[in-house]
Structure prediction request, 837 residues.
Amino acid sequence: MLRTTLAQLRAHGGRVLASCLAVVIAVAFVVATLVLNSSASASLLKAVGAPFVASAAVVTAPEDADPAAGGAALGAAEEQVRALPGLAQVSADRETGVQVLLPGRTGSSYAQAQAVTAPGPLRWERTSAGRLPQAPGEVAVSDRLDAAVGDVLEVTRWTGEDGTEAVTSEVRVVGLVDLAGDPTAGLYGRVFATDEQLRAWGAQDPARLRVAAAPGADAGELTDRVAAAVPAAATGELVVRTGEEAAGDVASAFTGDAAALTAVLLVFGAVAVLVAGLVIANTFAVLLAQRTRELALLRCVGATRGQAARGVLLEAAAVGLLASLAGAGAGVGLAAVVSAVAADADSPIPLGTLVVPVLPLVTGVVLGTVVTVLSALAPARAATRVAPLAALRPLAAVPVRSRGGAVRLVAGLLLTVPSAAALVLFSSAGQLEPAVLAGAVSFVGVVLLAQRVVPAVVGLAGRLVRGGGVPARLAAGNAVRNPRRTAATATALLIGVTLTTAMVVGASSTRATAGDLLEAGYPTDVVVSSWDEPVDDALLDQLGQVSGVAGAVPVLEGEVSLDDGDTTGVAGVDPAQAAQVVRSQQRAPVPAPGELVVSGYGAEVLGLADGDAVTVAGEGGTPVDLRVVVAPDSEQGSLMTAADLRRADPAAAVRGAWVRLDDALDADEQGAAVDAITEVVTAALPSSDVSGVVAVRESFDQVLTTMLLIVTGLLGVAVVIALIGVGNTLALSVVERRQESGLLRALGLTRGQLRALLAWEALLVAGVAGVLGVALGTAYGLAGTASALAAEGPVVLDVPWARIAGIVVVAALAGVLASVLPARRAARTPPVAAIAD
Prediction:
């Protein structure tokens, strides 16, 4: 039987091409997803976590620790760590915020100054021009500062208890540090100087300790020794992590959990495999229908039913293995192309390093082979179930109202109805995991019900095309004559369109919702704060005239006492003006007259609750009765109206401003506007701070956009596989109706009319599958968005109707195109030869 199977493969290699192509695409999808995830993780760790990847251990203070106490603890731990044996290098990283005045500018820009690592295994800084600093007075800078080698910068560090003492020094730029691929590079400028220079700028205590192991030393044991040697680690004052853990935490803090994106992509990979399985099953049905006589002849000359079945499965295993190997290679190639393109592009997610682990390759090959064999089980059983002599005659179509059809109907209803109700419930509650499970179960039920629903809808649609002449009328009748065949033809495309629509709707809604959430988390584009001098009207007028600024409102600062005597700082804004500047009041509402808006943390510290009545008064002011409004997720301090604050504290002064940028600005223009605002503010108020929060929001927005584009693009693979399935089932239809087509030709139907008949039939089936898929996909997309984001805030449901209509049109046209080859094959068969079969 092995020799017979191999001979069949050699003789009919062209027939298994479609099946091979489906397996290749599905396996390539899965392998490319896994390889891209590994590559993205490695590239992201290399870029964002570059300071830590060579470290055996990293010692830091907890995130919620007091900066002064954490720095002191790290300073004490430095001596303890340096005394340990088995170390190659210890780096005490110092950093501080500075203001940098660039040549030819009148105002300063904020930058983060950090000590360049001493030469050794821990040095991660690389220059794109010039060199790294070697002595005080020399610095290297990032591209964000827009300085050149040789420029002389004026660096100001504000010190003192109240931050009003300025320490200014001039430094020369000797190099540009390459931060390409680091998504955080555009948030603020960076200045790299020697450790001695950082101490002169006030950074006496380190921000972290990085430890490299000596050659031959065990990194894990060294990390344990570091933790044991630092007493503050046992009390929780300091945290000791491996370098890999520290790099991973930094990467996750910016992009979120990379495993979540991988899980999403692998879900679509599983979908591609499922669709490929349906295509493979249909392909083998085509092959076995074409080889019915061959199988019957084998049975007649002595082959048993088991031998015939094993031969078919052996053929499937060979096809699956070869196609899976090709798919694994194609997946690696696809990942390499994507990595190369992303490395050359200005992408917020770096993909410059291609990592090809063995596990994705093995997973893809095994998965493709197993799915191919499992998909061939049903066709193999159907082919070997027929008696040898009966197989030499044409087979009658199995009616849809068979026992198996009834079982599928009942199972479909039992799966769809309860799970659909659960999906609605879990989605509205924002419970992602149970919603995904309910959605998957309901979709399986929908696929089972498709055999009953699709033919019925196709029958209704057929009435609309009866005016298209004889081919259209014949196509309408043929489309419902064999419901199982019609459902099989439509199912693969139905799945592809459903998933594509779900992703399009989900991506659009997620994009809109996430945009609102980003604006809620960062409601103000630019925040200006002055430390010692008030912000006058002239400066506000200057801000309003900066190119790209849509509006600026003053922010008062004062100090008031509460009922219990506690004193707290309060900001005040004009509600009408502030509402025109902030982009969202979802998490940080603008106060109305008589309201005191406090954050969740502030309410806890002050002992306030939402709805409380409180009386505030400053020195020499009039007591003001206010109602407390707690904003749990707000990052702002206590806020009241400017009028209420002036009454409570007559000494309150304008010490800041909220600035909104023009909505039409792109990321580069936003950065330029923030730089211009910084220049104007620091020229008038040297001791001030300008926070370009819009840059943070834009960076997260770019990452989200890139992720959605990746997912949406890869999902198109499932649609390609679905189209292959449509072509296969149409080919099966031609084989099954060979005699019918010959009879129609003998009765006078021309070749063109026969091709038109099959095209009309494909249009009906594909059009119905497209419409049903769009309806289902829209529902699933909205439910998916709600389940993922409802817990974060209000969900914005955004349905891109133009793209939805385009999906229906593409699905219908794809069905017609898939009918071209089967129609040509049917039209070329002479009527006499077809009837004689």
Summary: The chain has four domains: 1-53+260-395, 95-204, 450-523+692-837, 526-691. The two ends are 27 Å apart (CA to CA).
